[in-house]
């Protein structure tokens, strides 16, 4: 691990200092007057949490509607439906006032538009793979702040007003050199201001700015047919920002100082935990080993005590070894995927500019990591004296993904019922199931085949035939209490970063500082390993040798606090009031908590396992 950190340290420092870099994404060069495609992505709302297709509302439609071919990671699973619009924009050609169309709304369309504005829906546009953002005034800072997309409308005094006029402010960077005697233009900024504008005479167009008076606003009634004019304006401005830095505006929406505070907080927590562990393990454990070995040399008749007393039972196979091996195998699979994805994202290969690359890479990596999961699960299952390896392999390949697919399939029915673009099409669901049954599960069996032929882990002591009785334990060694106590420190080491991850998922924010995430992930590994070792040591000192399941469950205790935090985030940060968005939030959050529990539980289990093998190999056993 230290070698990996040392190799990645220069890149890590660059990420922490400068944030985000986009290698491998070729810029598009435009000539003066060349047409730009303004595409629509989707409609989103923090209140409703249900994405919708752009043309779910009665916007102006082009003669031919064309959807961009979808990729698995973004357009399908995140509900993006990238489609062309009727905006006519040319490079470095301003447009003063352009009427797109006058839409004739039915009563049902008016009602839907009224509802969407009340739910604070946001429209997301895209040009040259650059999403639009809205400048907002910040009371805390003089610097210009931005939010993603533009608001569909506003609500004032319980009246609903539609933003039917938008002003596009596009920035270009003029590259050095000429191609065919013309300059090279590159789009480096896409900002939008949206206002509500009512016309007394629909035949005469007069675009107004954002200082329009309240009486000029276009009110949308609760129902009833009406006509709505849609207009737009285009402004061009030369910018010194180069193409490689054009995403800085979007990525600067998160506060880097808070990330630094998160890292410092996590380091302090880990150092505090390391100090406690050093005091307990280095002093107490060495003293125990010296005492046990001295007793063996001086007087063999003296009675054993403490963790040495259970040496004949400590490696006794646990109950339900198939299930434990399956959970550990899934945890290893998750660990490998997360580690690889974070490293490649930190290198800039899975940037937000590559739409859906992060999620797509995670899905395909998870499927192919079934080979690693099967191998390590098989070795562990063989070590636990398991013989039904085919059933264990099937459980490893299906247990976790069955829960994930079952939950997503159930929630997808509600999305279909709401006609949301977040609903995964049936063909995509079939493709995912085929990937699961055709790639992941067979690879798990292949891994099990090779893992079962490998020699099992060697134990330094023999196991007695008759198990000894476990005495009554102290209150703090109760499984529930131990789990809650053990979960505090790992959660405290990463809860600030968890806030930014929740914001990226539920508030349509960009998450980009993967250098910070890599550090937090390393800290999480260390803290989970240390707290699991401490809790298992206390358990063995209490002459309780049932550590197999306990080490897995206790080290995953931070998942309990993640779930509690998700409830706190739901209550304090989100404004969800309807049943289906609430169900979606807690359904998907439950899957994230389960994944986090398997990850941290696996880390703690292996740390405890290697620790136990080490300490029992250091004492003399007759």
TrEMBL record:
InterPro entries for the chain: EMP70 (IPR004240), MFS_trans_sf (IPR036259)
Record SUPFAM superfamilies: MFS general substrate transporter
Pfam family, any one: EMP70
Keywords: Golgi apparatus, Membrane, Signal, Transmembrane, Transmembrane helix
Subcellular location per the Swiss-Prot or TrEMBL entry: Golgi apparatus; Membrane
Superkingdom as given in the UniProt entry: Eukaryota
TM segment ranges: 260-282, 323-350, 356-378, 399-417, 429-450, 475-505, 511-540, 552-571, 583-612
Membrane topology: Multi-pass membrane protein
Signal peptide: 1-19
Gene Ontology CC annotations of this record: Golgi apparatus; membrane
Primary localisation category: Golgi
GO BP: any one term: protein localization to membrane
Family of the protein in this entry: Belongs to the nonaspanin (TM9SF) (TC 9.A.2) family.
Name of the protein: Transmembrane 9 superfamily member
Highest classification ranks of the organism: Eukaryota, Metazoa, Spiralia, Lophotrochozoa, Annelida
